[in-house]
Every structure is written in structure tokens, then in C-alpha cells.
Amino acid sequence: MKLFLQEEIMTKRIGEIIGERIFPGAVICLNGDLGAGKTTMTKSIAKAMGIDEDITSPTFTIVNEYTDYPIPLYHFDVYRIGSSDEMFDIGYDEYIESGGVVIIEWSNLIWDILPKDRLELFLTYDREGRSLEMIAYGDRHKKLIEEVVI
User: Rounded to two decimals, what is the model's pTM?
Assistant: First the structure.
């Protein structure tokens, strides 16, 4: 599914819709240019999940944990990861299997270790806004994007 997001508010709204329908164990993979809206999308998902903390991109810490909520959120930014093997050193597999929601910015850099079931979101600049392409793998993630309507 591909959508045109003319204004940032539309990116936020899509994130909110996803966050309202998110389920334990969901894996959201975000890809796109710098400034394309990956962190904005993450903030909106988190807000709709009831997370009231300031969501920032964990560029240097690799992962931020938001665990004091009904569904924990683990927010990865793997831009500075040198290899997929480094992810296992920080407990990547434990996060994936935790039952929390995992959001991975720059997931294309660790494509070889992404779980089979996941939702991939590709944000790209367009002349007058942004384009969002959503590709779901697995029944639960497919159902999630079927419910995303602007």
C-alpha cells in the first residue's frame, strides 16, 4: 500500500492509527532518508500507545526502552551499527521475543536478521510532501495495514 502524505500532520496521523491498533510482538521497520519522518512516525505510534515520555531517536545508544506501559516499546536506531552481529551483542533477539513492540529505524541495514513477521514502512520525499509505502509480512501485520485509512 502506498500513500501520499502532503503534510507532516498526515505522517503523525498514520502513526497514531498504527499505534491505536498495535499488538504485542509487533515489529515496525522504518526506512527513508534523513529527515523523511521516521522519528515523527515513531513518536506518533508511541503517543497512541499511551507513552507520554519524550521520544527521541537513539542514534548513539542504539535502543531506547519504554517499559512502564501496558505494551513496552523498544525503539532502535541502527544507523551506526557496523554489522548485524553487533545487534545480538545488545540483546536484539531478546527484544524481538519480548512481546513488546519493536520499532527499528534504518532496518535496511540489518535486513538479514529481521523477523519474518513485520511491517516495513518506507518514507521518501516527494515534490510536495512525502510518500509512504507499507509492506506487511505475516497475518497480524497485514491486518494492521488494512485498517490504516486516511
Answer: 0.93
